[in-house]
Each structure stands twice: as C-alpha cells, then as structure tokens.
Amino acid sequence: MVISRQLLFRSAVWEIARPRHPLTAGHVLIRLSDPSTEFSGPSAADWLRCHNLARAALRDVLGAAKAVVMFAHRWHPLGAALGEPVAESSTPTFHLFARWADETTTPGRQLALPAHRRLAVPEPVLGDLDEELRESLRFFADGPLADVAPEAGHFDQAGFQRGPATGVVPFTVEAPLQVGLHAPGRHCLIRPASGAGSIAALRPDELLGIADALAGLPMPGGVSGLSCVAVEAESSGEALSIHAVGRSGAEPASPLLDLFRLPEVSVALL
Questions:
Q1: What are the strands of the beta sheet with 93-99, ordered from one edge?
Q2: DSSP code of residue 189
Q3: What is the pTM of this model?
Q4: What is the rounded distance in angstroms from the CA atom of residue 171 to the CA atom of residue 241?
C-alpha cells in the first residue's frame, strides 16, 4: 500500500490516513505527523478538528452516523493483538471505526480474531472510496468545518454539538468492575463532568483533561499501560464513556474480549 493512497488529509499537527490493513471501509487513523509534538492546547484543538473532519467525510461518503475510537496509552499491542488494532508504529495513533447500515463486517468481529486471521479490505475497493473521502475532507476543511473554534451551544453543519466553555474540565473516574479473570488492572470509566455525549462535543481543554485523567490512573503491579475504547452516548442526557483497561505483557489472556461483552461496548463495536 503506497503512501500516496494511505494519506487522506494532513492538518497542522495531525493527519488522517488509512491503516496498513484496514479492517473495514470505515477504518481510518488519526496520527501525529511529527511524533515529537507536545500534546498541548493547539495540538488538542487540531486533533478535534481532524476527528470532526473524518466523521463528516465518513458520514458524507458512507452514511456513517456513528463511530468508535480506540487507542493505546503507554501500551504496544503484542502477538495476536486480540481485541485491539495492531500497532502501526510508535507514533501516537487513534483508530476510528465508523459504523453504517450497509457495512459487511464489524470492527468487533474483526478485532476478536487474531491479527493474522483478520481480512483487510481489498485495495481495489478502497481506491475509489479513498478518493471520495479525500474530496469530502477537502470540502469540509475549506468550508463547513473550516472554523474549529467552539461556540456555546453551537451545532456545526456536520451536526456535531459543541458545548459551552466553562473553564472547568473535571472528569469522573469510576471502577465499575474487573474485566475478565485475567485482567492485570482495573477497568476504569472516564466520563466528562460536562456531560458531553460525543467526542465532537468536547473542547480542547477537555481533551487535555482526558489525557491527564489517563496519566493519573493507578498502575497496580504488572500493569504497564492501557487499552482504551471511547464509546459515545446512545441517548440524550448520557455522557461519553472512555473505557480504560490495564494491560500487561505477562497477561495470560486479553481482557478486551471480556470488555466487548459489556452491552455498551458490544452495541458500539459488534
């Protein structure tokens, strides 16, 4: 797969690209163009811009109204990588899985297989689709989503709600259950106190707050990092949930397959 076909859009700090082995037609990456870039206000704002552009383009081209974001924090998927995307590189990378009515397979079904048994979307199928996505991304970047500064109560033209800025970015961190018998650490839920139901409703300072919350999670013995799944609310009044699961190179089984069995995650991925 050549670089010219991988890259879909490059912004100031982040870029939108296809992974080396796209698991569905709606599987794209948001990754840092320069791995040395600090995660600060400007880079958080640019990440949200890329996310919103990707969501708008995937909705435009595929009719994808929903999406799930998966990423690793201080963790590098190992071996069969059950339940998680394989690592593209050491560059900070977020996997966005769009969902739409006519998809032929689901992210969860693919991720439940060992990495070597997953079937990538054939390149001929993606060729024309990626050209459409590039055109759509350029359209939204130059027009409807060109201004990324959030305004109180504003709904942009892609249908994403942007909440009012409050200057306070607390998050609630819960430990609802132990995921699986073999999980080396707690399963934690991080939710924005603002009640934002989607990623697009977050502000840059809230995104930085999520990073701080993840960095502050306890790492009990054996835990070296986290696998994270961001699930948007299905109903009005509910908040975005970021599931963070402790991971260890010594774990006898991946806890993510147990995570997939939770109703909220199952609906989002399967």
A1: 7-10, 14-17, 27-32, 93-99, 66-73, 225-231, 241-247, 187-192, 171-177
A2: E
A3: 0.88
A4: 11
Q: How far is CA 149 from CA 46, 49, 154, in A?
A: 10, 9, 10
Where in the chain are the domains? 3-149+158-269
Q: Which of 8, 24, 4, 3 is nearest to 122 (CA)?
A: 24
Angle at 242 between CA 71 and CA 96, to 5 degrees: 40
d(CA 197, CA 162): 10
CA–CA distance, 205 with 144 (Å, rounded to integer)? 23
pLDDT at 177: 53
Within its chain, how far is the Cα of 158 from the centroid?
18
Classify domain 3-149+158-269 at the CATH topology level: HIT family, subunit A (3.30.428)
Summarised one tens digit per residue, pLDDT across range 3-43 is 445 899 999 999 999 999 999 999 999 999 999 999 999 99
